[in-house]
Amino acid sequence: PFVVVIPVARTSGWQNQFGEVSALFERVKKDLAADETRLYLAGQSMGGHGAYEFASANPSLFAAVVPICGFVNRNKSRDSSELAKVASALAAVPTWAFHSADDAMVSVEHTDAIVEALREAGNGNVKYTRYETAPGLPG
User: What does pTM read for this prediction?
Assistant: First the structure.
């Protein structure tokens, strides 16, 4: 069996809600007897941003991180100081990033940049699935 927890941000941005997210993970570990060596974090778009930020603030908590069309700094895809900070914190955390080159909301440059920064930080367990076109809905 497994448990999936999907928090939804009440406001734009995750940073102000990290305390609540931390409390949620503590509750899952305690009340549901979750295996603490098998906690995975995923998020899409703003949630992908939250995944990078929350995991970098709590790198020992997760077995892996899966950001989907995420970003570190929405305004600057190549902000080296922020990228280096996040990449350094996640240097030992397996990461599988996904992004589409034709993403109209979040430029694929954001994922290109963080994947490069993770590899430069010594993370040898980074996988990047970069689509040319986002997979469409069936039908």
Answer: 0.89
